[in-house]
Write a structure and sequence with these properties.
The chain has one domain: Maf protein, CATH 3.90.950.10. About 35% of the residues lie in helices and about 25% in strands. Strands 1, 2, 3, 4, 5, 6 and 7 form a seven-stranded mixed sheet that branches. Helix 3 packs across helix 4.
Amino acid sequence: MYKGHIILASASPRRRDILESFGFCFDIMASDADESGVESLHPADAVKELALRKAKWIAERVGQTDSVILAADTLVAKDGELLGKPRDEEDAYRMLSLLSDSKHQVYTGVALIKGDRIVNEAECTDVFFRPLNEEELRAYIATGEPMDKAGAYGIQERAGIFVRRIEGDYLNVLGLPMCRVYELLKDMEK
């Protein structure tokens, strides 16, 4: 198991919960990096860029440290369109309608910095939604859950009943692909 200390460059409760569930030693320091200007990039490149910006933002503030800075960014993509967090309820409805009865991708970019070493990768998981009707979409949106989540849904909450199946890393859909992160952390120890 990885024994080092991590600085998680995220205020995401899901990422915090994932790290805690695996017993990692970490502190949280939320990044305020600029997240604009990635809309035209391929989704994998967009999330890698955003994660790297977050990690570098933290690295500039903490200076030289023995800790590994870990940043992540997650986006949903459907037919090349990036779906971040919805602007409002109608945007959430638009996103969820687009995902209904189809396959989409969840991309998470991960960036790790330790000293002069930087690792930056992306993970992709295919998610298949069953057909959704207007009534269930409006009821889900009324819960408020979609408003702080990429693609306007959280698979670990009520929207889990929309998901017919996934192909890939489930934790990636939650926002932190731990298998990949663990492998990268082990490489950082070398």
